[in-house]
Design brief:
Shape: elongated
Largest sheet: none
Radius of gyration: 30 Å
Structural class: mainly alpha
Order of helices and strands: HHHHHHHHHHHHHHHHHHH
Number of strands: 0
């Protein structure tokens, strides 16, 4: 009985299937362009999950799709789904040379989307921004809208950060679990870090680790994470240091050590001695004996101690450093810190040694020489910072 019903249903459906096939001319392989594009998206999602084979086949598949597009019956492009597929193809690594050969008068697609996507992949960024700025990704089918939102996030990252973050949120919402979401997370974490939005920075980092830690592009993510962490004051709040440490536990030991050293130095320069010490001590536990990294970790911890509440221990730690293992740009800071510490001790010691004079008070201390030394070191540091700003991890 069940088989009879299925057979009847199939027989009834055949005329409609035939009519559909006649109404929608296809490529020589029998597939519609929008179906072909789905295969490209599937390969990209494999890349997000760490499939190296998918990464290697992506370019070849995009080239094959381009050939099928060119061989397709011109009538297929009147279908809006196929017109939108052209835009998705472009934004998924497709060749603009192929798209320019398609019958433009037959393409049923929004002109702003088509021209904006073409301008973007051809490097005409200003034109792409102008064409795509007013496009609302959530009004488009999710497959197309997510791609457009990702591109908008890239286009407006420097000029309109808040808009870029909003569009990257759209991309993640419209295409979860895909390479588009993976790419949106990578881009957005740097932007929210620069905007000092720690809670969202933490959320995005954990989301990436949870879903895409095996992605082919995970290395790029961690570079952006490092930049977001160190090019702002996001890691310099003592109250959130434990949360930062939890995030850093997710990355390899060498990268973690490098980041703790960067955080320690940034904190020291900005006078955040508590964070300087916390980061320096973490770096000590991760560094090898007698290594340059260990000397730097001792340097940062020593500075935090001598300028904090462990004067003698901190000064001894700084004096014991092997200066030859420190970066040249750290030497002025070391010299200034040691000189300042010695000047302060000298002033207090001089005052207390004279029996016929009252004890010196901070108000009566003359720190002009040490202050000048520190100012010179800070000036040198500023010049070095300008020279090395673009080389930061």
């Amino acid at each position: 009985m069940i088989r009879l019903r299925l057979r009847t249903a199939l027989l009834m459906a055949l005329p409609f299937a035939a009519a559909s096939a006649l109404a929608e001319p296809a490529t020589p392989s029998g597939e519609q362009p929008y179906e072909l594009v789905r295969s490209l998206q599937a390969v990209q999602d494999g890349i997000a999950n760490g499939d190296t084979a998918a990464h290697g086949s992506h370019i070849a598949l995009a080239r094959q799709l381009g050939e099928k597009f060119l061989a397709a019956d011109p009538a297929v492009w009147s279908n809006p789904q196929n017109g939108q597929a052209v835009v998705i193809y472009l934004l998924s690594g497709g060749a603009p040379q192929v798209v320019r050969k398609l019958p433009r008068d037959k393409l049923n697609v929004d002109e702003r989307l088509f021209n904006g996507a073409l301008a973007y992949v051809e490097g005409r960024q200003d034109e792409a921004r102008e064409l795509l700025k007013e496009v609302k990704p959530r009004t488009l089918p999710s497959g197309l809208g997510g791609q457009v939102a990702l591109v908008q996030g890239a286009l407006f990252a420097r000029s309109e950060t808040s808009l870029a973050i909003e569009r990257l949120d759209d991309a993640r919402l419209l295409l979860p679990g895909t390479l588009v979401e993976e790419a949106a997370l990578r881009r957005e974490i740097l932007l929210v870090g620069q905007a000092e939005e720690f809670d969202k920075f933490e959320f995005l980092t954990l989301a990436y680790i949870r879903h895409y830690r095996n992605s082919i592009y995970a290395g790029d993510f961690w570079q952006r994470f490092s930049s977001g962490l160190t090019q702002s004051s996001i890691a310099l709040d003592e109250r959130r240091f434990a949360r930062i440490a939890t995030l850093l536990e997710q990355i390899d030991r060498a990268s973690r050590l490098k980041l703790y050293l960067v955080i320690a130095r940034a904190a020291m320069v900005r006078g955040r001695l508590a964070v300087t010490r916390l980061a320096g001590e973490r770096a000590l536990t991760l560094s090898a004996d007698a290594s340059a990294d260990r000397e730097r970790a001792h340097f940062f911890r020593g500075v935090s101690r001598v300028l904090g509440d462990e004067y003698d221990g901190g000064l001894a730690e700084l004096k014991a450093l092997d200066r030859s293992k420190l970066p040249e740009r750290d030497i002025p800071l070391l010299n200034a810190t040691v000189q300042l510490a010695l000047d302060v001790r000298k002033q207090f010691a001089g005052g207390s040694a004279a029996a016929d004079k009252p004890p010196a008070t901070p108000a009566r201390l003359d720190l002009a020489s040490s202050t000048a030394t520190l100012a010179r070191a800070q000036q040198q540091l500023g010049e070095l910072e300008l020279l090395t700003r673009d080389r930061r991890p």
